[in-house]
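Pasting two entries for a bug report.
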Amino acid sequence: MSKKNGPPFQLFPLLALCSILSCAHAGEPARLRFEVSLTNGLLSTPQTGRLLVVIGRKDTPEPRLTVSRTGPDAPFVLGSDAKNLSPGKAVFLDATAITFPITNLSELPPGDYFVQALLVSNRDLLSPQAPGNLYSAPQKVHLDPAHRATVKLALSAQIPPERLPDETELVKFVKIQSRLLSQFHSRPIYLRAGIILPKGFQNDPTRKYPLWVRIGGLDTRYSRVAGMMAESSNFRKTWMAEDTPRMILLHLDGAGPNGDAYQVNSANNGPYGDAITQELIPYIEKEFRAIGQPKTRVLSGVSTGGWASLALQVFYPDFFNGTWSSCPDGVDFRAFELVNIYDDENAYVNSYGFERPSERTLNGDVRLTMRREVQIENVLGHGNSWTTS
């Protein structure tokens, strides 16, 4: 095709792409970056939080719903702090932003992706899916770090306000404001819990029951009880069996201002243990006809919940009557995953010079290393730090 008849045919895809990507002038250094802004009229106040750009291979589920994945299907994630973001202002994320699983945006393999921005701004529930967080619509683009381009993403939607899950005859949910935690954080802080009532609970309004306090793995939400009582679940079959002892199950919530609070008092999270034993459990026992005596309270937990259930029994020995703690986190730091923080010189590399694993498959293959685990935590955490992830 001659020049007088128009540009060569192969330029048309590039011209179409430039309607989405702002292409730079010739001669400028190559740089791929993302420009994130806030849609006008969405909110009346500036927003501060952790800004993530999630780059996924697929649009289902949306990229923002996959940020915690670390396996072969993990998306590429860029993280940066955003302060007082408002319409007319923008935050740029480029090769200087901290990333996962690659170490720099320049390492992104060229290709077609679905890109989405997410602003984690909820101060009381540290979770990408927390109510109030903002996100953009997924956008399909071709990305190549070797070519200078700006992908514009507009935060145009907000996760709806919190709504407790639907209840059934035996599955209930509670949310109460904690006086102790609210004083510690200097703002209203709430405790949430899921309840499973025993079979026949409604038949005898005078009968009282013992209390089973259950704690799931890291970040397990109180809403887990709905799945436990799904029609096809083995737990439901056992719970509803005629020979199963009748009791009330209380499932604690693994979410808070700093993520999972481990259900105990701490200088960072506040008096969670006191709030559970002095506020939440007494409320549950009164509301749902529990016996309300130490000899009728038992604990159980798995993984992080195994640690938390053991800790609650140790710290409150006169409040609980026993615990079943399964595969708990280390109770000291001699085996923090595989790291002995008192003796080991390096958390990422062992004494033989090999990358230290943090997760394996059942056949022993390494799925995740300590270095990569901390890398995604740094991407998610304010100030590029795992300490606030």
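Entry 2 (this is the one that rendered wrong in the viewer):
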Amino acid sequence: MNTLELQEDMKSRSLRISFTDTAIGSVGEAINQIVFDRVQRPQRVIRHPEPDGFRQPTLLHKADLQEPAAATTPPAEAATGNAPPASSTDVERIRQVFEVEGDGFRLEEHRLKADSRLEYARRLTYLFIYAHELAGRRPIPITTVRQMLDACKVLDANTRHELARKMAVEIDGEGVRLKREGRERAIAALDQILDSSVADPGWTPESQSRSPKAGDSRDSKPSGKAGRKKSTVPDDWAAKWEKHPEIVDGHFALKGKTVLEKGILALWAIHKVGGKTASGLFLQRFIALAFSLDEKVRSLEITLQRDNAKEYVMKAEGGYKLTPSGTKRAVELAKASK
């Protein structure tokens, strides 16, 4: 006897048939076909395309088949809208403002769409540091930033104070890097500068050059007795101090210090750049330019002439200079800022 047994699930089904050799020969082929069709019916052939052709079909059970997924947006369409084109990266955009010059940058686009000297200095600082950051240099020397500001004629006492205390940058020793807010401001400034629809207030260092205005008779008439020309000696001292190898951040070194200590450190720095003595006026101007600190001339002179100052400062021809004790105290103040 030959036995054929078929079982199914889903509410169950069972079939058991016994045949002789003679009977199986006549009906076996028909039963075989029925069983084969029953087993194969839930299966479906799915072909998966491949980049270089196709692979062998994979059999999936009907229960595993899912509804077709919603069509996704092609990359080309996803790039449209407010998003910039894939080629308009900040690396490429920053090159429209700065020209690569060795390991540094030179300002190529002077129209930074600023409305004042201080705003121009802010934008220039953020963009300049950001350009170095995009080039893989982070942090960069603080002196490099000051040199760029000086070359663009916006490095004054206000800018020094802003850079040291108010800008969204992190100064660590001699290095400087952008904080997150500073990076956001750099990108926002870059967007505005390269957007032709944004109006330009028109402030640039070049636009501030003094020239007689039409109809202004004050520049064409003699003013009588000529006034004394303002000395540039303190400005020269401050410029040399910016490049001096022993430069310290005087603003932070003198934070919370007395007027006497400010005068001592200033006289020490002036001596380092070649100054022998400094008057109260020159000292006041140097402190403002080099340390971004505002002191009154009269206050400095009164302080330096007091009895407690004689150990550190002495009166000399042309102004004031340090005693050996004053030099020692200045060195201590300088080391404390590093």
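Dev reply: Rendering is fixed now. As a check, the viewer should reflect this: Confidence is low (pLDDT under 50) at residues 62-87, 210-225.
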